[in-house]
């Protein structure tokens, strides 16, 4: 055996032993309630300059338990990816980068440092938007706010999560006859800024004295579900900060489903590049966010006379996306959605200069079973948008809590722009 081959084999065995050991440590950790740590996990921005490089990245994404985590997925030549590399993969990653002459830059040198700095060091007591709340705190706040504003707020729920947690929201309504906006927020567990922004909006609609805010608060009804993936959100607090999916069990290789791949419009009509269940997790049998029968889709379908706008809150990359994601064919109203999106992005830019890009989902990457493809194509709600909040990747999913309020302020401005332009174009009264 040539010595280089021999050393590769030895290295492979060492790696395998390391993986087994890490898994055992992780399992014990889970059992005793220890949080996963991300010391020396690094995030690189990797440029994709040719098809060969793109293929390698797709292959890497396909490997089950490869432990690379794509914060920004490979899509097409010319669009860089963000990839989190664990320390035990550092040399393999270097080798891959070198072998195909990738160019990359180190974006986050130590993910654990960002996790440690995400929340303020000395948080003030009580409910405020200076820190990220836990799932229990959000539920408690919702109960409290509903009790305090029972003239305007009605508690709502569309059922239970896989782990049997009631999914709570509010309907905010100042007068009868209003058209409604539905906000589905925080469907991806690690995108904490989504839920925080949704709760801030509820509070602002109740308390703001700004005339433009009062107008949209009072002349529209708002269905707001701040956290639509409570199991995943809990898990991202208690165990693994980087968890994305639900906590539903499917088979040995498939823990958790991606809820934003399981809505029932043209579900799996196109194949995404990643085909294995552990990563794609679309192999749940019933589409439409189905972990319980009384689900989000049914809730919306029963109210399509009322709901005229469907918004899905995510992070990150500062984007406003409209249907479709499953096909490159533009929706018949794509030009209007682009215009409305640009009006929203224009308003969003005003307070702090934050730039959002606006386009259809497919231009970002192909995805089937997304909620807004379904709300547009399945439920017939023309004004369907995904927000990808701050930032552009400096912190990524680990946006420091001191950006909750600025993010929320600019998103609220964008809602004014979005609704104004929709009215101008005749989509809303
Ligand atoms: O992949 C998703 O579900 C969304 N991005 S995220 O990073 N928050 O997970 C975006 C879905 C929008 N559609 C397409 N990108 N095609
Ligand atoms: Zn997301």
TrEMBL record:
Q: Which GO terms describe its biological process?
A: proteolysis
Q: Where is the active site?
A: 388
Which residues does UniProt call coiled coil? none
The protein's matches in Pfam families, at most eight in alphabetical order, are given as: Peptidase_M14 (PF00246), Propep_M14 (PF02244)
Would you tell me the Gene Ontology cellular component terms? extracellular space
The protein's GO terms of the molecular function aspect are: metallocarboxypeptidase activity; zinc ion binding
- Which residue ranges does the record assign to the Peptidase M14 domain? 131-422
What protein family is recorded? Belongs to the peptidase M14 family.
Q: What is this protein called?
A: Zinc carboxypeptidase A 1
């Amino acid at each position: 055996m040539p010595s280089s081959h021999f050393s590769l084999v030895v290295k492979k065995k060492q790696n395998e032993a390391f993986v087994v050991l890490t898994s055992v440590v992780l399992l014990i950790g889970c059992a005793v309630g220890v949080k996963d740590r991300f010391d020396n996990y690094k995030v690189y921005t990797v440029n994709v300059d040719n098809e060969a490089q793109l293929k390698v990245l797709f292959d890497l994404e396909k490997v089950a338990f490869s432990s690379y985590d794509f914060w920004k997925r490979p899509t097409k030549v010319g669009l860089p990816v963000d990839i989190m590399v664990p320390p035990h993969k550092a040399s393999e990653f270097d080798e891959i980068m070198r072998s195909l002459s990738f160019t990359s830059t180190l974006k986050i040198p130590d993910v654990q440092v960002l996790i440690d700095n995400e929340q303020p060091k000395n948080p003030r007591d009580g409910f405020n938007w200076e820190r990220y709340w836990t799932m229990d705190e959000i539920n408690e706040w919702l109960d409290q706010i509903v009790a305090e504003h029972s003239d305007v707020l009605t508690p709502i729920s569309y059922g239970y999560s896989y782990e049997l947690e009631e999914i709570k929201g509010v309907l905010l309504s100042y007068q009868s006859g209003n058209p409604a906006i539905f906000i589905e927020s925080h469907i991806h567990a690690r995108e904490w800024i989504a839920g925080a922004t949704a709760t801030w909006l509820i509070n602002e609609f109740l308390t703001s004295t700004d005339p433009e805010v009062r107008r949209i608060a009072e002349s529209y009804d708002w269905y707001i579900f701040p956290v639509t993936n409570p199991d995943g959100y809990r898990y991202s607090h208690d165990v693994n900060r980087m968890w994305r999916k639900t906590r539903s069990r499917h088979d040995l290789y498939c823990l958790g489903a991606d809820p934003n791949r399981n809505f029932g419009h043209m579900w799996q009509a196109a194949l995404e590049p990643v085909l294995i269940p552990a990563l794609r997790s679309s192999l749940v049998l019933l589409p439409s966010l189905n972990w319980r029968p009384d689900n989000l889709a049914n809730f919306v379908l029963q109210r399509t006379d009322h709901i005229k706008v469907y918004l899905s809150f995510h992070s990150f990359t500062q984007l406003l996306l409209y249907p479709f994601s499953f096909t490159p064919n533009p929706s018949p109203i794509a030009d209007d959605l682009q215009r409305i999106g640009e009006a929203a992005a224009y308003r969003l830019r005003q307070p702090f200069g934050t730039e959002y890009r606006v386009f259809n989902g497919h231009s970002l990457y192909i995805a089937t079973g997304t909620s807004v493809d379904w709300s547009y194509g399945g439920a017939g709600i023309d004004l369907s948008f995904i927000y990808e909040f701050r930032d552009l990747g400096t912190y990524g999913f680990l946006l420091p809590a001191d950006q909750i309020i600025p993010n929320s302020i600019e998103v609220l401005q964008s809602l004014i722009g979005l609704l104004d332009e929709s009215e101008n174009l005749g989509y809303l009264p």
